[in-house]
Design brief:
Blueprint: H1 8-43, H2 77-84, E1 91-92, E2 95-96, H3 101-104, H4 118-134
Antiparallel strand pairs: 1-2
Helix pairs in contact: 1-4, 2-4
């Protein structure tokens, strides 16, 4: 009987399936921590746009708990992801959003890190978006 060697893809696929269940439950928790660390200063602890820096901003921080309500009751996941990672060109403080761009934008791959930080950053962005979905009114 001939067996096929296990490919890297196969190993990662199996690991992904095994870890997906536990990671999914933690995504909103990770997102809550990220929100507290990077977003709450402007958007407020509850995401209502009333953070400590809100009164100093030239562009008001939006109430992030109303994203679903302002989108016919459906959470705009893709739009939120694009806003977090900076693809939409949102502006805050007169500079591109997010203010903490390197945290939510991947670095370029290099010899020591062939994939760059793409997977880590995408995980952060998705966790933060899932947290925002969890705080909708």
């Amino acid at each position: 009987m001939m067996t096929k060697p296990i490919t890297k893809f196969g190993v990662f696929a199996v690991l992904g399936v095994l870890l997906a269940g536990s990671a999914y439950a933690q995504d909103a928790d990770v997102g809550a921590q990220l929100f507290g660390d990077y977003c709450a200063v402007c958007h407020g602890d509850g995401g209502k746009g009333d953070g400590d820096m809100a009164n100093l901003m030239t562009i008001p921080a939006p109430n992030l708990t109303l994203l679903s309500a302002n989108n016919d009751g459906e959470f705009p996941m893709l739009k939120v992801i694009h806003a977090i990672d900076g693809r939409t060109g949102l502006r805050g403080h007169g500079t591109p959003m997010p203010v903490f761009g390197r945290v939510f934008v991947s670095s370029e791959p290099g010899p020591a890190n062939p994939y760059g930080s793409v997977l880590e950053v995408r995980g952060r962005v998705l966790s933060l978006a899932m947290y925002l979905e969890s705080i909708q009114q």
